């Protein structure tokens, strides 16, 4: 691509990315210059030559032409990692629809001055024998937090202070107490490095079994032959996928390259982090999404300086500035948290593949329930399919029972718990074992309506009904889950004045309330977006449950992932088909995934577990295949549905969301855009515009248009045309107000 002008940023790591300067490209360079390249430009009043990066290209001057200076030359050396990331940002801009600035902000954390924090490590100060005695003492005295920390120290020797705080929920006071008692030492980073880890305490790593070895060998020979492939590792939970990742990373590091490991934050548990540290020592850095820009920048600086070989983290770890990236691992590749909700709405899997392609790296995607998208691509030969079909450690798979809720109604059971589930809960209470009850959709919390006139109480700012909260308090309220609007619950209809106002549906709070009626002596914990609001709410509830402080845990999907509770022998899924009937094409896939994962929570320990799936639709294929843990069966069924209706992955699709404060404007813009797109392109099907399921959020009106095409190139072409049309409409409709347009490629949610 040639261009007359380029936007240049001088010294990317120290400037704000939005301060780019435009330069003219001399004819001699116009064929050579490209995004991400380093060039020399005259800078400032003295026109001193400086090096900068090309972050934008175009044919229009943004400035008075005779004031624009000329690029002097191209720096002829290897493209540094910053250049690669700029290229990646350019690709994201084109693929997902955003400005270059938005794309750059996504791939590069901006430097902010922060006080560097000294990283601290907690190290066991006792010999194992003495430590075990003290652990018994803590347990006897019910010092649960102390016991939890000491137990981890006995297992691992030393653990990072941050990790203890965040994942084990240990307070500074607890640490201080243990230090005073002489149980542990608190070491600074430098002290810790000098001391080294006390490896002798650690349990030895397992030897790979035959199936794992085969995969690692296959990877090794591909990698050493510089054949950088994408692998899809389909392996049931506990089949030893993580071990395979770690051995593949060994191969990459031995060649002097680095690796990125993506793990959804919720699955990045203490145990997982410690397993990686045990294997790789401290040439590893962990990112999390709560880090601010400055903290993330500091970690990226360590990476740039070559102090680490491996970064582990959620989505954004993908942009770690490794200059010799050799492998990207993406665990739980089906997870929806890999898709960004902000513009550019990228999917980490697609960006990982692109980054790997740009720098010659391999990719391993892993999951117990692969996305239909990836499984399809594996079927097409784009990815190499790997399987691990057995659990690495002997463990019993749970028994699954499906209960027909219609039958329960016929028998006169009006509660949310089938007779069978009630019986099993009672049994677990008597045995001193734990149960998890799972409600698979928070959005289906209870709404309030008038039995006399039918009026539903809606949010005044959003097109959604308000949700009933705090049933067991003196001041129940109605809350909007989209904007946070809250009003007190009043037992009188605003529309007709009748007092016949009632609640419907079944949120987690109501499940909890009903559970208390049936099992008054059970200790119940609830985990949903309301009870986990505080910074550590999440971990606090899970560790309380893990310590046996409750018999039953009730919650939304957030209880499904990542955590092992050996004493849980019963999992109840209260209404499996709830999430099946949402509006988008991914509903079946998401439900299968949720049901499979929820079922996997039962029987993690010595005792076998039971799973009860309650449903109004027991014949449903998704429910059936999930109950049988039959991924292939699910996939066959799902792909024929996608094929029939032309949904991804069989087709490519973009959801285009148009928003404005004025309903008339959004209506007219959406209508006009769809009309023009229909005349402009033949290869692309235009569907809509329609009001989305929620047509107004926070006083902003919304319309959606879908574009579908056989191949992605046609679709991306259509997207660019649409961006141009939107720009011209913006000036035509200027007098009516401003509108915004968002693109979502292969959307993973409904609009
Ligand atoms: P996954 O990532 O597929 O869920 P993991 O790698 O976490 O599986 O392995 C599950 C458990 O089995 C872990 O405790 C791990 O240490 C153990 N494990 C893995 N591979 C082996 C093996 N070859 N022999 C014995 N235990 C193993
Ligand atoms: Zn009414
Ligand atoms: Zn609202």
Describe what this molecule looks like in 3D:
With 751 residues, the protein is α/β, with parallel strands linked by helices. It has 6 domains: 4-107, 3-Layer(aba) Sandwich (GIY-YIG endonuclease); 117-191, no CATH class; 210-393, 3-Layer(aba) Sandwich (Rossmann fold); 399-443 and 507-642, 3-Layer(aba) Sandwich (Rossmann fold); 444-506, no CATH class; 652-745, Alpha-Beta Plaits (2-Layer Sandwich). It has a 7-stranded parallel sheet, sandwiched between helices. A 6-stranded parallel sheet has the order 16-26-25-17-24-23, with helices on both faces. Strands 2-1-4-3-5 form a 5-stranded antiparallel sheet, covered by helices on one side. Helix 1 (81-97) crosses helix 2 (100-107). It binds adenosine-5'-diphosphate and zinc ion (2 copies).
**Domain tally:** 6
Secondary-structure class? alpha/beta
Average pLDDT over all residues: 86
The helix fraction, in percent, is 25-40%
Which band does the percent of strand residues land in?
Answer: 15-25%
In the CATH hierarchy, what is the architecture of the largest domain at level 2?
Answer: 3-Layer(aba) Sandwich
Instruction: State the name of the first-level CATH class of the largest domain.
Output: Alpha Beta
Strand tally, please? 31
Major beta-sheet overview: 7 strands, parallel
- Output the CATH homologous superfamily of the largest domain: P-loop containing nucleotide triphosphate hydrolases
| CATH topology title of the largest domain | Rossmann fold
The rough form would be described as globular
Oligomer state of the chains in this structure: single chain
Give the termini distance in whole angstroms. Answer: 36 Å
Bound molecules: adenosine-5'-diphosphate, zinc ion
**What's the alpha carbon Rg, rounded to whole Å?**
28 Å
Strand order of the largest sheet: 11-12-10-13-14-9-15
Number of helices, where a helix is a run of at least 4 consecutive DSSP H or I residues: 22
Unreliable residue runs: 196-201
